[in-house]
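Lecture 7, part 2: worked example. A protein chain together with pyridoxal-5'-phosphate.
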Amino acid sequence: MFEDLPIAKDDPILSLGIAYKADPRDNKIDLGIGVYRNEHGQTPVMQAVTAAQNRLLAQQTTQAYIGLAGNAEYNQAMLDLLLTGNAAYSRSIAMQTPGASGALRLLADLIASAKPNATVWLSNPSYVNHQPIMQAAGLKVAFYTYFNPASKQVDEEAMLEQIAKLGPNDVLLLHGCCHNPTGAELSFTAWQSITELALKNGFLPFVDLAYQGFGQGLEEDIKGLSHLANRVPELLLASSNSKSFGLYRERSGVAIVVGETLQQATNARGKLFELARRSYTMPPNWGASIVAEILNSSELRAQWENELNQMGLRMRSLRKNLADEFNLQSNSERFSYFTQHQGMFSLTGFSHQHTEQLREQHAIYIVGGGRINIAGLAQQQIPRLVEACLAVGV
Ligand SMILES: Cc1ncc(COP(=O)(O)O)c(C=O)c1O
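Predicted complex, written out as structure tokens:
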């Protein structure tokens, strides 16, 4: 049966993590895998999460099946979190999924069911899993211009010029905030222009929101998304709680469909049920119940927001100190982009040779392509990191 299968290729990010763990040097720095770390290098369980888990354990009475849509309180809480006050709210359905990855796949399958010839447009570059997920659903994939490697910012003019050519057969996948892997954000004006283009030309916006709260704050990070959702007739949204609740391994996400009418959104939900039924059937419950418990308790919600704010502050402070140190040691402003980027990542443009040398000579681990996870740094490591980067000639 399996004799013709090729030898599996190593996942580049996970294998970097394995190499990091095996490295005996005690001054090693891991800026690879995309998980938030505190100043001590740990990915902590948030205190609001621990409190919610204690409450849930005390209340738990059953582990019986919960249904195709998952936890109803969670679905409502996610809709409230993302779309309260929005014109789209009353035309939306939410369905709990195994992580945003599960939502991306389910929504891709939904597009393939509704419009098999659709093309999904991804930013160049985009989250590494976007292309395989869309293609696994049988969809065509194309790329729109996004990142300008010279300025390290979004090339909005070129991007909008391309998007202006999309029509009803096209789906435009956007990162809600904190773009992975570049860190370069769309301006609010760009979100406004995209909204006008979607209204005029009829393409379907599809937003992937994996880092809410990691940029400028919970509301600020979805300002563009909220504007878009408020105006367009239809929208798809995949959202993750891996980062903003630190629930990476609990696989808690949500798929939201905004329909032209509530009936159409409800029909889409029926299709999503069918699609879920034939693959994983029901999503795991624990992560979603933690999120629902937090969002529905004013005390836990305040605690969670406070912790998330602290994480955002830490990342912004790391960005500032990193840019300052680079500017000081290199005597130039060319690294100021670290403060303009948002969230955990910055695409540095370091070459393959640079990243190899950083790993071999300085025990600094960065993924090929030069994406740095800012949140992997401790403040006191910044001078050594900068010194090493300049020593290898970035
Ligand atoms: C842009 C983006 N979307 C989706 C995901 C997947 O998130 P989840 O852990 O919820 O599946 C990630 C995770 O890194 C991501 O960066």
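The pocket of pyridoxal-5'-phosphate is lined by residues 34, 99-101, 127, 175, 180, 208, 210, 240, 242, 253 (CB under 6 Å). Residues 24 and 363 are 9 Å apart (CA to CA). Keep this in mind for problem set question 3.
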